[in-house]
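Thread title: Can someone regenerate the structure for this chain?

I was given the following input by a collaborator and told the matching structure tokens would be attached. They weren't. Posting the sequence so someone can regenerate them.
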Amino acid sequence: MKLIPKTPGIVKFILSGYIWDIKTHEKSIYLTFDDGPTPFITNWVLDELSKYNAKATFFCIGKNVKTHPEIYKRIIEEGHSTGNHTFDHVKGWKTSVEEYIENTKKTAELVNSNLFRPPYGKITIPQGWALKKLGYKIIMWDVVAVDWDCKLDSETTYNNVINYTAPGSIIVFHDSVKAEKNMKYALTKVLEYFTKKGYTFKCIPAKVL
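Best answer:
Regenerated them for you:
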């Protein structure tokens, strides 16, 4: 099934308890990166963001943080925010609530954040309730680059972002090996494109509504 780059309004309405975008009248957008930190790739992303004074939110896999704490430390030191992406990138639809929460708590020992993004965007209603009870804000997305899809050319990945992004959009990229080629091509062009249009790139605030 082909993934639609722009999240339909009906989905946002039905799942209104999750955060899909940030309501704003400012020319601000919210870049997010899933699945890191990854050697070389995450560092490249950080270098690229710094060229444009751009801030972003990194939804980190716990085992990657444990393996590469120096990269995670750099993310924080450079003023970006982080979020919990479970310890093992677990599939919510195939995991019990108890297992899902324990996996999330394991990551919370390494990632100090109340922001959570479910891997694959797949999460059950009971899992969502349990996470909210623990104080998490479940962050989804308004636009997804689809950078991990090797069948897509890099230009399509770029167009997925610039054609659908609006003020307040939460945009998903991946700082992973699988997405590296498309992400690197698209991110540089996205940063340049929106900077020229007067946009700023911000972290998702910890107290997001």
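The mean pLDDT is 95.
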